[in-house]
Hints:
Layout: H1 14-23, H2 27-40, H3 45-57, H4 61-74, H5 79-91, H6 95-106
Helix pairs in contact: 1-2, 1-3, 2-3, 3-4, 4-5
Amino acid sequence: xxxxxxxxxxxxxxxxxxxxxxxxxxxxxxxxxxxxxxxxxxxxxxxxxxxxxxxxxxxxxxxxxxxxxxxxxxxxxxxxxxxxxxxxxxxxxxxxxxxxxxxxxxx
Length: 107
């Protein structure tokens, strides 16, 4: 119709869709979306953060650790990701090994 406003609905980005699914506890579907977001933009740090959280929800701690390491690489001041990475290491029983390695470097 001439003169009428057309409303275009934009599809959410894979990151936005992943976040929505994550909040609805649809973790597998959220993981797919976060991976799509990373494929579209490998510098999308929030996609790595949420993907790490989603892997954590599934107790996939090694995968969660990898994603959180990517976040910290891009944002070394992201304290929440450091905390989450520590939890992932704890769940993998890696903290004792890290402590030993750290104490050797402090000598």
